[in-house]
TrEMBL record:
This is Ig-like domain-containing protein. One of its GO terms (biological process) is adaptive immune response. It comes from Mus spicilegus. Residues 1-95 form the Ig-like domain. SMART domains: IG, IGv. Keywords: Adaptive immunity, Immunity, Immunoglobulin. It holds the Pfam family V-set. The lineage of its organism: Eukaryota, Metazoa, Chordata, Craniata, Vertebrata. GO terms for cellular component: extracellular region; immunoglobulin complex.
Length: 113
């Protein structure tokens, strides 16, 4: 089982970014995908969850309206879009298979003021 995330992004304040999490080694539609955020020196913060089988999503209230989670079943890939970026969004972002300790390697988001 592998989750391969997109590379680091350097983005400007106010812009949007869409990062990917390509999965392999299991049936994509059988497990949900969680996204989590980690800022320097802080713990993991749950952003949201998507069920690739039926498209159901659930978001942390803090990220509601800021984040959109989607999937492409044909490529077994999950996506997370973040909008209206600020310096607070500079962080590591991980995708993780639900009910499993399997994480992606993280996408680093740098935000320019």
């Amino acid at each position: 089982v592998q989750l391969q995330q997109s590379g680091a992004e350097l983005v400007r304040a106010g812009s949007s970014v869409k990062m990917s999490c390509k999965t392999s080694g299991y049936t994509f539609t059988s497990y949900g995908i969680n996204w989590v955020k980690q800022r320097p020196g802080q713990g993991l913060e749950w952003i949201g969850y998507i069920n690739p089988g039926n498209g159901y999503t659930k978001y942390n209230e803090k990220f509601q309206g800021k984040t959109t989670l989607t999937v492409d079943k044909s490529s077994s890939t999950a996506y997370m879009q973040l909008r209206s970026l600020t310096s607070e969004d500079s962080a590591l972002y991980f995708c993780a298979r639900h009910s499993s300790p399997t994480f992606g390697q993280a996408t680093l988001l740098h935000n320019l003021k």
